[in-house]
Amino acid sequence: MKNRRTTPEERLRKRVREHAARLRDGDDPVEFWATFCEALLAESAEPGPAAMRGADGGSAASLRASRLNTLFLSLRTPVLLLDADFAVEVMNPAACELTGAADVEAWCRGDHAPVPLKELAPWLEGPLEAEGLGVEGVEACRLDVPVVQRHGERHFSVAVSLAADFPDRRTGYAVVLDDITDRVEGERELAGERNRVAHYLDVIGAMVFTLDAAGRVDMVNRTACRMLGYAEEELLGRDWVDILVPPPQRDAIRDCLYLVLSGQVEEEDERSFPVTTREGFRRMIQWQSQVLTTEGGLPVGMLLSGTDITEQRVIEETLAEKELWLRSSFVALGEAVLILTPEMTILDANPAAEAMFERSQADLQGEPVSGLHVNAGHYEDFLARSKAAFEAGERALFELPLKRRKGEIFPADQSVSLIKGDDGATLGVVNVIRDISDRKYAEAELKRSEEKFRRIFETIEEGYMVTDLEGTVLMVNPATCRLLQFEESELVGRNIDTLYRQVSERVGFREALQAKGAIRGLQMTARRKDGTAIVIEANAHQVLNNQGEPVAMEGTFRDITRRIEAERVLRESEKQYRAFFENNHAIMLLTDPKSERIIDANPAAADFYGYPIEVMRTMNLSQINALGRDEMFSEMRRSMDEGRTYFIVRHRLAGGELRDVEVYSGPIMVQGAQRLYSVIHDVTKRIELEQEMKLLATTDALTGASNRHQFFSLGGVEVQRAKRYDLPLAVIMLDIDYFKSINDTYGHAAGDQVLKALSGAVSSLLRAPDIFGRLGGEEFAVILPQTGIDEGVEVAERLRSTLAGLAVEVGEDTVTFTVSMGVTRVSPGDKTVEEVLNRADEALYKAKRMGRNRVVRG
């Protein structure tokens, strides 16, 4: 059964549907369909392929014309075809209805005589002329045109394009009109609504922003612009977070906006964070937010409303800070404080009150303050004293005992004040309490101390004397009588001037006391009753009355005759010490052991260090000591371990030269102060000789590598360390290939040069902790601490390659050589370094047997 052939109308509808499917969001539908119509018109005007023509050659064109006619008549959009003079030739029914033209069929068939556009649609003719259509190459245009009709105003979106040539018709224009009245009215209503909203938003005092889904500013009110210092155009289209939020808060705010807009969290009703004004000032804003959605509930933006709370926040923070300060003071106050109600009930208590009464705040709150008093009588006394002070407008101050939780009674100083409101009403009472148990105890102690002072006065060894301003003795202690050999009755009433041996001392004492008001450590000579003289050291001061006027003199003194003699003897001994110190050829320093300051230096020290003695007396040991603190401690530890009485350190001379010295030090008392006396010997040459001897004993004389004994000594330590701490350790044995032939061909001197060159090259490639030694002849070994077998093989290959490329110049000859190597590692069963070397040696000879110049793992 054959398929039914589709009619031209069906094929045209199918083509329209296919074309409509290609209409995308954002395309202009009028322009889209106008283009489609032009394509159909052009298609109908051109002859088709021969296969589509009928016997008369025109059936295909007729078919296309039929399709176009069907589409033209069925369009609800008004379409007019104009000639080049802007006269209407053809209109579809929708256009006839719009222009009010009669004889619709004639207009649709094109049988109507052309009518100037200004007669049918004068509202369209003016705008087209204004667009310059047909002038200066303008062949198409698009514009919106309003039309006033009986039922109101309508708006059309007009698309005009140049029409192709048609049979029996000149070129003209196709005009398509799309009714956009509803859209324009909607836009007007929306604009009016936006104007009303904008006016309202500009009137309110809050800042208002609307943001799109990307966080850009869509709308901002005048309040926000004024408060932030921006013009509206500076904010519109800008990222709200980037332009207003300070950098530290940007990430958090942007994340919050994203989570709210994406629906991952509930939108926040209120949040406070700062913004930055155009001038760079920071303002604290309290924000309210609301997500803006489509009718389908999809979020498209956000509405933000902000109130400036900067000043409010400052006030709140200031009040909070003040409240915190007051509360902290209340809590930290050392005195107990009770806040009482007007009815004398405890409202609050600070920690000091809790400690004083041995009760918690919870126990105290709500309790009558009478419970803290000793009894009802004491409480009545408390109320009476407080009331009397309050009536006089004063604070009540009195001493009244209280009791602790367990009934212990203690003396207390109390201060009671009223808390008044702004209206003068009594809000409460502040009761500040100070426990004066210590003061009472001190008063009792003072009485006891007076008795104690009397005993001290009578028993001290120093003389004590009080005189009037004229020098008449008013009081003396027993020690004064013993020192001067007078009875108390012989001294009291006597003038002190008779006790001075020299008149000049008496005058000087009086003048100094009057000038300074007090003197200390004044040495004078006094006369005893029998006429003998003693040297005394006196301290004295004037006694002043309440007005600060001197009324008497008092002082103490002691007999220092024996001390003066001892100091004389000490000075003689110091002279002897000074002569020994300065004339000794040994280097000597006297230092302060605490500050390490150089107190003195003898001439031998000045000659050795290169500094004048006066300069050395201003120096510190750190200026000549070249060792660091850790090195000094290490040397002190070695000295103790070795039982030495000296330290070996390095000193720096004035010219910068370093010298090794032995320092013998010991404590000495000089003028009552402990000093450190040091004798110093220069041992630089001796230490250099010792180091040379040590080097000769441990180093191979020819190559400079460790000798066999030193290599085995150091290697044994490394093997034991590796086994103790389970560390990797690799050993390499190397031997020069055909070394005998080098000696036979070039001589033993050439062989020595080869050995030196090998040693220098190997040493340059090894690390500081690696051990390299010559075991004998042309045989060498290397110990690599903390190195695995694989790394050891890599080191050996590097050594082999380097040595193979080494050229030794011997006279006019150039000698090259290769080496064979065996590499092994320390195993758990190894006890000595010899066992490890034996395995490396076996691997070495295996390398020899395999052809030499290679590395073999053992």
TrEMBL record:
<keyword id="KW-0808">Transferase</keyword>
<feature type="domain" description="PAS">
    <location>
        <begin position="449"/>
        <end position="495"/>
    </location>
</feature>
<dbReference type="InterPro" id="IPR052155">
    <property type="entry name" value="Biofilm_reg_signaling"/>
</dbReference>
<feature type="domain" description="PAS">
    <location>
        <begin position="193"/>
        <end position="264"/>
    </location>
</feature>
<dbReference type="Pfam" id="PF13426">
    <property type="entry name" value="PAS_9"/>
</dbReference>
<dbReference type="Pfam" id="PF00989">
    <property type="entry name" value="PAS"/>
</dbReference>
<dbReference type="InterPro" id="IPR001610">
    <property type="entry name" value="PAC"/>
</dbReference>
<dbReference type="InterPro" id="IPR035965">
    <property type="entry name" value="PAS-like_dom_sf"/>
</dbReference>
<feature type="domain" description="GGDEF">
    <location>
        <begin position="727"/>
        <end position="858"/>
    </location>
</feature>
<dbReference type="Pfam" id="PF00990">
    <property type="entry name" value="GGDEF"/>
</dbReference>
<dbReference type="InterPro" id="IPR000014">
    <property type="entry name" value="PAS"/>
</dbReference>
<feature type="domain" description="PAC">
    <location>
        <begin position="520"/>
        <end position="572"/>
    </location>
</feature>
<dbReference type="InterPro" id="IPR043128">
    <property type="entry name" value="Rev_trsase/Diguanyl_cyclase"/>
</dbReference>
<dbReference type="GO" id="GO:0052621">
    <property type="term" value="F:diguanylate cyclase activity"/>
</dbReference>
<dbReference type="GO" id="GO:0006355">
    <property type="term" value="P:regulation of DNA-templated transcription"/>
</dbReference>
<protein>
    <submittedName>
        <fullName>Putative diguanylate cyclase YdaM</fullName>
        <ecNumber>2.7.7.65</ecNumber>
    </submittedName>
</protein>
<feature type="domain" description="PAC">
    <location>
        <begin position="269"/>
        <end position="321"/>
    </location>
</feature>
<dbReference type="Pfam" id="PF13188">
    <property type="entry name" value="PAS_8"/>
</dbReference>
<dbReference type="Pfam" id="PF08448">
    <property type="entry name" value="PAS_4"/>
</dbReference>
<dbReference type="InterPro" id="IPR013767">
    <property type="entry name" value="PAS_fold"/>
</dbReference>
<dbReference type="InterPro" id="IPR029787">
    <property type="entry name" value="Nucleotide_cyclase"/>
</dbReference>
<dbReference type="InterPro" id="IPR000700">
    <property type="entry name" value="PAS-assoc_C"/>
</dbReference>
<feature type="domain" description="PAC">
    <location>
        <begin position="396"/>
        <end position="448"/>
    </location>
</feature>
<dbReference type="InterPro" id="IPR013656">
    <property type="entry name" value="PAS_4"/>
</dbReference>
<keyword id="KW-0548">Nucleotidyltransferase</keyword>
<dbReference type="InterPro" id="IPR000160">
    <property type="entry name" value="GGDEF_dom"/>
</dbReference>
<feature type="domain" description="PAS">
    <location>
        <begin position="573"/>
        <end position="643"/>
    </location>
</feature>
